[in-house]
Every structure is written in C-alpha cells, then in structure tokens.
C-alpha cells in the first residue's frame, strides 16, 4: 500500500496538469474564435457601405488585445483603412483636457475650485447669476452653464480652401479661410458680454454647478484656462506633457505633427468627401490619432 501511494499521487498530478493544459488550450481556442467572430461581424458592418472606413481596438492594462482596420481611408485610391491609419477622433479629444488639468494642477499652475476669471484674459459671467463665479471644476464636469448655441456651431468650422461645394461641408457650417482666429479671440467673441458673437443664450439659467449640460464650448474654454495658467499654448502643452511623454508618436493636433501620408479622408456619406477644414474650438474635437498608437510609459 505504501509503495502504491506515490504512484497514485504522480498519476493524480499528471491528470491535473493535463486538465490545466486542456483548459488553457480551450481558453486560447475560445479567444481565437471570439476574435474571428468579431472580425466577421465587423466585416458585415463594412459591407453595408454605411461607413467608409474604421478601425477597432480592444485593450486592457497589459496592452492591445485586438486591433484591425476595415474599409477604406480613401475610396478613390482604394486605399485600405488599417490599424495605423490616422484620423480626427472628434469628442474623444476631450480626454486630454482632463489629463491636462491634473497635470497643470500637479505642476502647481492651477486648482480645480479656482474661479476661471482668475486665469482668463477676459471675464466670463453667467448673466442670470453674475455673483456666482464659474470654476475650473464646473467647466471640467460640464456644469458651467455654458451652452452650445448655433452661433458657436456656425463659427467654429473654417475651410482651408475657398472653392468647396456646400454639399461636403460639416452640417452646412463652414466659414471662409479668412475667418480663422485664435482660440482666445473666438471665445472672447462668444462669451464676453462685449464680444461680437455674444448672446445671453450662450448661458443657461441654472446656477453654475447646479446641472450637468454637455458643452463643447465649455470644454474649449477649459483648455484656454490651462493655456493661460501654464503660459503655454494648449496644443504645445498636451504634445510636450502628454503625447510625447506617453510615446504617442502618431498623435497630434495638426497634419504637421503626424505622418500626413497615413491620414484618412473624411466622408459626409459613402459618396461625399468632406472639405478640408480646421476647428477654432480644436481642443473639444480636433485630435488626430490612430488605434495602434501605443502608450509605452506612464506619465
């Protein structure tokens, strides 16, 4: 019986190891089949011809688990949309505003509960509540009472060239190239009561801090606060303190900061290419990046 016991233990260990190996193999097969299933489903979306091109990425704390491009980055040239294709990522750009706030606070340049007028080159006051200051925290949590009205949307998109048909403009909002101005001047015109584009309706009637209301204009003003507090333009501050530090070499705020040969065309629909444009409120939606731009170190 004593001689039999070691044999039984060894046999049990062999079975256990085999079961673990089978489990790992099954998990690998399951993950592989999940990836194949996802690729199949995304290809189905591509074939509907509702979206010209896109990439999909799945990540966790260890890195990229799945990253693949679908469709075209340029229909005319039949250029495939790949995982390293670069394009504007719209409102996801606001992620950098939040990171920048914490970075600027870490540098001792600002505090979240400071009134924004401590930093801005002009005053911003809710006309319904002139005695309640709007704070940086209000801007960052979209409770500032600053609203996205038509006079904001109609003046933020600027054509890079004059001769573009209206059918390829963004929502019909496209100003001529000579309308381009600085972020500070644009916001001063909209939010200061002496500004050319100012209307009281740029502010809601709630008290600052009282109600959440998503605001692109408020987010851009938050970026200007960061710019004023750090005495560094927002694009330069984010490039130097975030993108470069994280090793994101394929990300930036203009075609001069990325590989322009990898930039996708933007389409209004499957037939129409959007006109080349810039955004005066670029911090709220102007970042160029790619789904494969890996973060290689921590801030």
What does the overall shape look like?
A: globular
Please identify the structural class as seen in this structure.
alpha+beta
Give the % helix: 25-40%
Spell the H/E element sequence: HEEEEHHHEHHHEE
Strand content: 5-15%
CATH architecture label of the largest domain: 3-Layer(aba) Sandwich
* Number of beta strands: 7
By CATH, the topology of the largest domain is Beta-lactamase
List low-pLDDT spans.
Answer: 1-27
**What is the CATH class designation of the largest domain?**
Alpha Beta
Major beta sheet summary: 3 strands, antiparallel
Our Rg estimate from Cα atoms comes to 25 Å
The number of helical elements comes to 7
CATH-wise, what's the superfamily of the largest domain? DD-peptidase/beta-lactamase superfamily
What can you see in these coordinates?
There is one protein chain. The strands form 3 sheets. The protein has a 3-stranded antiparallel β-sheet with strand order 1-2-3, covered by helices on one side. It has a two-stranded antiparallel ribbon with strand order 4-7. It is of the alpha+beta class and 299 residues long. The protein has 2 domains: 4-80, no CATH class; 90-289, DD-peptidase/beta-lactamase superfamily (Beta-lactamase, 3-Layer(aba) Sandwich), CATH 3.40.710. It has helices spanning 4-47, 95-106, 136-140, 150-156, 183-191, 216-230, 234-243; strands at residues 53-60, 63-74, 79-80, 87-88, 157-159, 277-279, 288-289. Mean pLDDT is 87; it is low at 1-27. A hairpin with a 4-residue loop joins strand 2 and strand 3 (79-80). The chain is globular, with a radius of gyration of 25 Å.
């Amino acid at each position: 019986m004593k001689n039999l016991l070691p044999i039984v233990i060894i046999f049990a260990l062999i079975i256990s190891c085999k079961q673990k190996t089978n489990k790992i193999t099954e998990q690998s097969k399951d993950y592989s089949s999940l990836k194949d299933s996802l690729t199949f489903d995304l290809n189905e979306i591509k074939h509907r011809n509702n979206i010209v091109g896109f990439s999909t990425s799945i990540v966790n704390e260890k890195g990229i688990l799945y990253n693949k491009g679908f469709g075209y980055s340029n229909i005319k040239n039949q250029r495939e949309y790949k995982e390293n294709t670069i394009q504007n990522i719209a409102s996801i750009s606001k992620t950098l505003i939040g990171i920048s706030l914490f970075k600027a606070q870490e540098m001792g340049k600002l505090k979240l509960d400071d009134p924004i007028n401590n930093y801005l080159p002009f005053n911003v006051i809710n006309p319904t509540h002139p005695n309640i200051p709007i704070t940086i925290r209000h801007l960052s949590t979209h409770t500032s009472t600053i609203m996205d009205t038509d006079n904001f949307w109609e003046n933020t998109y600027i054509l890079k060239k004059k001769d573009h048909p209206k059918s390829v403009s963004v929502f019909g909002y496209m100003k001529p190239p000579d309308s381009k101005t600085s972020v500070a001047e644009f916001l001063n015109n909209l939010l200061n009561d002496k500004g050319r584009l100012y209307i009281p309706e740029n502010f809601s009637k709630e008290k600052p801090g009282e109600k959440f209301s998503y605001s692109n204009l408020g987010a851009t003003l938050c970026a200007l606060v960061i710019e004023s507090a750090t005495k560094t333009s927002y694009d330069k501050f984010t490039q130097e303190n975030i993108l470069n530090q994280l090793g994101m070499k394929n990300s930036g705020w203009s075609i001069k900061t990325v590989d322009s040969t990898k930039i996708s065309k933007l389409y209004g629909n499957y037939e129409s290419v959007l006109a080349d444009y810039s955004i005066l409120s670029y911090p709220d939606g102007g970042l160029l990046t790619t789904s494969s731009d890996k973060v290689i170190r921590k801030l």
